[in-house]
Amino acid sequence: MTNLALNQYRDRLNAEKQRLSHTHMCDMFESDPDRFNNMSIENDGVIFDYSKNRLDAQSLSVLAEMAKAGGLAEMRSAMFAGDKINTTENRAVLHTALRNPSEKPIMVDGKDIMQDIHAELSRMAKFASSVRDGSYLVSGGKVTDVVNIGIGGSDLGPRMATQSLREFNDGPKLHFVANSDATDLDDIVERLDPKTTLFIVASKSFTTAETMLNAANAKQWVEESLGDEAGRHFCALSTNLEATQAFGIENERTFGFWDWVGGRYSIWSAIGLSLMISIGPERFREFLNGAHSADQHFMNAPFEKNIPIVMGLIGIWYRNVWGFPVQAVMPYDSRMSRFPAWLQQLDMESNGKSVLKSGEQTELDTGPIIFGEVGTNGQHAFYQLLHQGTTIIPCDFLIAATGYGRQRNRDVLLSNCFAQSEALMDGRTLEQADNNPHRVFEGNRPSNTFLFKRVTPHSLGMLMAFYEHKVFVQGVLWGINSFDQWGVELGKELLPTIEPMLDVNSKAIATNGSTKGLLKALHQFKQS
Ligand code: F6P
C-alpha cells in the first residue's frame, strides 16, 4: 500500500463515517443551533456555507489532521515559491504569481519572474486600451468585434469569465471560437465585418490542431476582403514565438507567457487578453486582485477555516470515504452558464489520473466526475436524480445576492437555490408524503453554497481561484501531479494516421475493428 496519509488515516476516517452514518444532517442542526456559523467561512465578501454536509467538527478535524500529515502545507509553500512541483514536466506552477500585485521577486531558474509578469501585463493593458478607445486602427477604423480563437484553457476561462462579466463589457463585442467544426467560426463571422474585426489567436503551444485550423480559416476570411491589410487584424497569445511569427503575427502584437503557466490556469496571463479588452485593464486588475485575495486566504487561514482546503477535504471525504463518484456544480446566474464547463477542464484534466507522482498505480479513487448547469434550468432537467436517484451527488450552489436585472427575478433565483439545497437536506418522509412512496425524498443529501454580493471581476476571480486551490489540495492528498495532462495525448497522436483514411480512395486500413467498420460506412455515406 502506498504511503499516502489518506491510506494511513483510512481506518480513522471510516470510523468517522460509521459514527455519522446514522445521523441525519437535520439532527446535526438540531443538536448545534450555531451550526451555520460554525460551518461557514467568509473571505473578502464571499461566504462559503458547508453546513449542509455529512460532517461535524470532529470528522473535519480528522480530515485536517490527515491533510497536515500529507504535507499539504509544505506543498502549498512549494507551489507559491516556484518549486518545480509539476514533476513529470519538470516545471514550476506559478499561476498565483500572475495575480500577485507585489514586486517582490519570485525566482525561477535564477530569473525574477515578477518583472516579466508586470511588464507583460503593462503591454497587454496598453494594447487593450488602444483597442477599446479606438486608437488602435484596423482597415475599417475602430475595432468593433474581437474573436478569440482557442480551445481548452485558451477558451474556457476567458469565455466563461467574459460571459459572466458581461455587465462590465464596455469595449468591443467579444466572440469565442473553439471547435474545429467549420460552423463554429462561420456562424460568428457571418455577422461580422472583416474590416473592423480583430482576431486573437490564443494557444500556449501554438500547435493545437483545432486552433491552427480555425486561425488559418479566419486569416483566409480576412485576406479575401482585405489582402495585405490583414496583418493588423490578428494578434497572438502564446509561449511559442517562433510559431506565432511563422503564422505571420508580428511580435508587437504577440503577448507571451511562460511554461510554468498551465493551460487551464492561464486566464490570469496573456490568455486573459480577450477579457481585458472586454472589461478594461482596471477591472481586469480587480479580477486578478480577487484571485490574489483567495491566494492569501489559502496561504494563511488555518486549515479548518480555509475555504479551498475545506472544499478539498469535503470532496475527498465523499470520494474516498463515502464512495460518491460525482460532483455537481450549479451557478444560479444565467451569465455564469459556462462555469461548469470551465470547472470540468480545471478539475478533470488536473485530477483525472490513476498514476501517482512516484509512478505507481493509485489504489484510491481520484478526481470526481464534474457536471452542472445553471439554476434554475438544471432543476427542470436532472435534479430529479439529485433528489431521488440511487447515486448520491454532492452539489455546489453558487449565487449572488443581487443581480443586474430586476431584483424580483434575482429573488426568484435565490429562493429556488435555497429551496433546492434545503430539499436535498431535509427530504420528505413517507408520513409527510401521505404514505405515497413515490413522493418520498430520503434527504440527507449534501451541498455547499457560495453566497456573495454580486458577480464582479473581484468576486469571480476569487471563486475561480478557490476552485483552483481545491483541485490542488486534492491532487496533493491523492499523491498525483495535477499539472500535467498526458491523458489527452493519445487521441491527438492517432489523428495523423486516421485522417488520411477518411479519403474514399485511401488504401490504408485501420487496425481497430470498430474504426474499420465506421470508415467503411463513412465511405459509403460519402459516395451515396
Ligand atoms: O486538451 C489539452 C490541452 O493541452 C489543454 O491542457 C490546453 O488548455 C488546451 O489543450 C489548449 O492548448 P493550447 O493553449 O496550447 O492551444
Structure explained in plain terms:
The chain is α/β, with parallel strands linked by helices. It has 21 helices and 15 strands. The protein has helices at residues 5-8, 10-20, 25-31, 35-38, 57-69, 72-81, 95-98, 113-133, 156-164, 182-189, 209-226, 241-247, 273-279, 281-300, 307-322, 339-351, 383-388, 407-426, 457-478, 489-501, 513-527; strands spanning 40-43, 46-49, 107-108, 111-112, 137-138, 141-142, 145-149, 173-177, 197-202, 234-238, 254-256, 326-331, 369-372, 395-400, 447-452. Strand 5 and strand 6 (141-142) form a beta hairpin. 6-O-phosphono-beta-D-fructofuranose binds next to loops.
Identify low-pLDDT runs.
none
Number of helices: 21
Average pLDDT reading: 97
Main sheet properties: 6 strands, mixed
Q: Strand pairing plus helix content: what structural class?
A: alpha/beta
The set of bound ligands, ions and cofactors reads: 6-O-phosphono-beta-D-fructofuranose
Oligomer: single chain
Outline:
The protein has 528 residues and is an alpha/beta fold.
Write a concise keyword list for the protein shown above.
528 residues; alpha/beta; binds 6-O-phosphono-beta-D-fructofuranose; 21 helices
